[in-house]
Amino acid sequence: MNRKEFENSFALMLTGDKEAFTNVYNEMKNPVFTIINRIVNNRYESEDIMQELFLRLLSKREEFRVKNPRAYLFMMARNMAIDNLRKYHPDYLDEEMADSEGSQFEDRVCLTASVEEAILQLSVKEREVLTLHINAEMKFKDIAASLGEPLGTITSRYKSAIQKLRMIMRGEKI
Fold this sequence. Notes:
- The protein is mostly helical.
- The chain folds into 2 domains: 1-88, Rna Polymerase Sigma Factor, Chain: A (Orthogonal Bundle), CATH 1.10.1740; 94-174, Arc Repressor Mutant, subunit A (Orthogonal Bundle).
- It is built from 9 helices and no strands.
- Mean pLDDT is 79; it is low at 98-114.
């Protein structure tokens, strides 16, 4: 589905069109799940969050307007995943946030052929920038605006994440 078709389906969905909702769901379920799961790192919790996200969409009505529906859904997924971590795993989130703010990383390296497993070794903030840029196809300036952070911080975080992924995949220490 191209961008215009998706935007039309999204608008129709907000009027209560069930077929449009099905189209939006089928188009977005995989990328939305990926974003949530990269943050939460639990398949079952991710499925629950995704289900809740789409149920919330059903409650939105015609007066609700979004400029970029895909970006809106990705940010909604990100926010709901982080809210879930705050609610059910506050210690994990505190540890991940501390990692992303410059504290020492454990000397842990997992030799892996899986990019997904390597991504899970990044901090929450690095994963979210990586996911928003690659999966959500958001531009760095849009990510910066959405997260309320400077553009330089976002691009630096992305470059750092890519560099760490390369190191992890080569089996080097990060």
